[in-house]
Amino acid sequence: MKKFIITATLLLSGFISIKAQNQYPEWLKSAVFYQLYPQSFKDSDGDGIGDLKGIESKLDYLHNLGVTAIWMNPIFESPFRDAGYDVSDFYKIAPRYGNNNDLLALLNAAHKRGIKICLDLVAGHTSDKHPWFKASAQADSNEFTHRYIWTSSKDILPGSFFIKNDFPRNGNYLKNFFDYQPALNYGYAQPDPAKNWQEPVTAPGPTATREELKKIIAFWMDKGVDGFRVDMAFSLIKDDENLVETKKLWTEVRAWFEQKYPQGVLIAEWSKPEYSINAGFHIDFMMHFGVPGYPSLFFNKWGTFKSQNPFFDKRGDGDFSDFWNNYKKQLELTQGKGYISIPSANHDFQRPNCGNRNSTQELKTVMAFLLTWPGIPFIYYGDEIGMRFIENLPDIEGSILPDGNNRAGTRTPMQWDKTANAGFSIAQKIYIPIDPAPNRPIVEQEDADKNSLLNFVKALIKLRKDNPALGNDGKVEAL
Ligand code: GLC
Q1: Domain 6-122+286-478 maps to which CATH number in 3.40.190.150, 3.40.50.720, 3.30.70.940, 3.20.20.80?
Q2: Atom of ligand 1 nearest to the CA of 122
Q3: For residue 231, how far is its CA from the centre of ligand 1 (angstroms)?
Q4: CA-nearest residue, atom 12 of ligand 1
Q5: What is the reported pTM?
Q6: Among 117, 67, 85, which Cα is nearest to 344's?
Q7: How far is the CA of 122 from the centre of ligand 1 (A)?
Q8: DSSP characters for 79-105?
Q9: Residue 3 pLDDT > 50
Q10: Is the pLDDT of residue 215 over 90?
Q11: What is the pLDDT of residues 236-265, one digit of tens each?
């Protein structure tokens, strides 16, 4: 077991210095993740939306596929204006997915099959319907007055991220993403004395937010969850040049987390491994933003984010160097400390089957690359059967981004069999349209076809497990 030391000098409220010795959980070394979009995986109660019992009923499928861990998008109570990334209660499963006991049952059933489950932690913001925010928006001071970032008067509007409102409080709040996602207050790296509403990271408000974050993590870890993917992990501390204070915050969280949950993992949505992994995350991605390179592999003229001449295109005139040069640099800066993941897709950008890259042969090529590459593979649900990105869907649960790009096409229901709604749901009306193509790929058919993408992916996962050189700690060189 390779060990490494992170010496974390942490500026806690009392200026205490902590030294943490970090090593990663053994299971990560052979982990193959599956990202599952809970609302679109399997509906067990016929309401047209996927749920936890539905997921539980498909664990054997995932086990047979060979994946060893699942990351699920947020399943907490929410008005679902941003598909659950607008949380209104961090301690409660959204009723449409089931209840807290259903999660315990799912964890138990997954663990019996050797599958770990990671949840999604929306660390930087809440819904504007969260009781904390409602309390914070009151004129009278209360426990949550400093939980969010508010200017000291409604007349102060420092930029487009501050939102004007008609709440009783005399101030405008800072958003983190959409307008209805107010930023939690973790403080400012360099508070400007002229702006008295900017608090240092050690002020009581930001300190309480940080403690609450740990409380949420502990609440679910104590129930048997195996870790978290942290949404917008880079976004917590404001005006933070080079993210110095943000990195310190995560180093502190990792030291605490590792001591309490040595088998737990923290996965960053940061897309800058040199920052995130050195700050204590076990895994970070290279994907559609952050460190450049991913789009040059996969993005063509279709999908959520359009580009041209990707490397994975049958014309073969793409260039690998943009990805490789950036990846190599990130690898050198993080080697032995954590894993970089190149995901097949995620809920924010298009799948490999997009536009004119749609043949089984091409999709097999993409999966062969992803599943023999070092780091930890993340297969986005449905990519193992070659589900298509669907163009021109309406705005569903906030799928359309402020810049107009639409994510709905990558969130359509999993295609299981030949029955109605491809076996996803028995409902008349499902919350998001299913791929209408008569020949849409389905699990049932691919399972029975030895030349299918699904069986190819299964074989690749097995090959990876059987050959350490092709595994998570394998070495790679571009020729
Ligand atoms: C992350 C999520 C995305 C969400 C946003 C705001 O980027 O992946 O789906 O809309 O954060 O929480």
Answers
A1: 3.20.20.80
A2: 12
A3: 6
A4: 85
A5: 0.95
A6: 67
A7: 8
A8: --TTTTSS-SEEEEE-GGG--HHHHHH
A9: no
A10: yes
A11: 999 999 999 999 999 999 999 999 999 999
